[in-house]
């Protein structure tokens, strides 16, 4: 698969090594810098604000105990449970 255009992450992933690796592969890092960083990097705030949509989706999946604790060790069964949960979440 080709690399994604952007990688959106929180301040915990703010490291120079990660930023350099992402830029080398052609991905724009959308990571806000930590406050104590000497070089404050600029990031796309509009894209970062959309991060909450993905976070809310993962929180909805965590409501399903079977998925949150990964009861199914077989990948096919686990992905079936994720698909079922996604369909029910979308329906509601």
Could you explain the architecture of this structure?
The protein has 92 residues and is mainly α. The chain is built from five helices and two strands; from the N terminus they run βαβαααα. The protein has helices at residues 16-24, 45-49, 51-62, 65-68, 75-91; strands at 6-8, 28-30. The longest helix has 17 residues, at 75-91. The protein is elongated and about 45 Å long.
Count of helix runs? 5
In the sheet with the most strands, the strands line up as 1-2
* Percent in strands: 5-15%
User: Could you give a short account of the major beta sheet?
Assistant: 2 strands, parallel
How many angstroms does the end-to-end distance come to? 32 Å
- Give the tally of β-strands: 2
Structural Rg: 17 Å
Mean pLDDT: 90
- Poorly predicted sequence stretches spanning 5 or more consecutive residues: none
| Molecular shape | elongated
Estimate the helix proportion, in percent.
Answer: 40-55%
Question: What are the SSEs and their pairings?
Answer:
Layout (H helix, E strand, L loop, with lengths): L5 E3 L7 H9 L3 E3 L14 H5 L1 H12 L2 H4 L6 H17 L1
Key structural traits:
7% strand, 92 residues, 51% helix
Short description:
This protein is mainly α and 92 residues long. The chain has five helices and two strands. It has a two-stranded parallel sheet with strand order 1-2.
